Amino acid sequence: xxxxxxxxxxxxxxxxxxxxxxxxxxxxxxxxxxxxxxxxxxxxxxxxxxxxxxxxxxxxxxxxxxxxxxxxxxxxxxxxxxxxxxxxxxxxxxxxxxxxxxxxxxxxxxxxxxxxxxxxxxxxxxxxxxxxxxxxxxxxxxxxxxxxxxxxxxxxxxxxxxxxxxxxxxxxxxxxxxxxxxxxxxxxxxxxxxxxxxxxxxxxxxxxxxxxxxxxxxxxxxxxxxxxxxxxxxxxxxxxxxxxxxxxxxxxxxxxxxxxxxxxxxxxxxxxxxxxxxxxxxxxx
Length: 285
Ligand SMILES: [Zn+2]
What we know:
Elements: E1 2-6, H1 11-16, E2 26-31, H2 40-49, H3 54-57, H4 62-76, H5 88-112, E3 129-132, H6 141-154, H7 160-182, E4 188-193, H8 195-203, H9 207-227, E5 233-236, E6 241-244, E7 247-250, E8 253-258, H10 272-284
Parallel strand pairs: 1-4, 1-5, 3-4
Antiparallel strand pairs: 2-8, 5-8, 6-7
Helix pairs in contact: 4-5, 6-7, 7-8, 8-9
The structure holds zinc ion (ZN).
């Protein structure tokens, strides 16, 4: 079985650009209304685990907040610094300043570094698997960190857009090469591609950029269909995207597409756990 995990792939855009390889025997929207917010890591984790992982991944921030902050302070402040002998009150003031500066690091990296073990996911049903770059499992934090930094810089200065897109496409090419080389070598191969999300957030309203993205993703599906004809191919996204001026924002519906007739009707993203398990059972018996 092969799963193409395409972040932010949107059904209306697939149809608009007539991406025939993304529209397989059966395709449609998924239901993600069970989540308070359409957050990438949470939805992929829930897809893998077959249940809503929202509360596990984002407990109230303050629970871990102080502990993480102290950890960070101990890491970046030399051990002979006065800081370590300050009164608790002044400690706190300093920590608040530190928090304002590193808020992104503390909260962002904790969420993006969330990892499930294979035993907590449908991966355990397969004899061999490879999962490339999927959030909540094998996400390449280092590769994507630069993306997030450049994305933030864009809002200070638009000239960062080119460098941002360069990094996004470079990361994409790395995953694509690895993915195409892995076809046929595992019981289950999952390739994650964030192109539609990463380019869409800053340029969803710029048609030629989005067309290039959708053609590229369509082409990856085409390659799979050519090289692994009889294999089950599931294409799935975490959420869709809608235009907000030139920008893009997440929507309440994801996308799925499968080269089998299953007659699913707007399945929940968490339903795929059992669907994948059954498809695997059928193909191996
Ligand atoms: Zn996403």
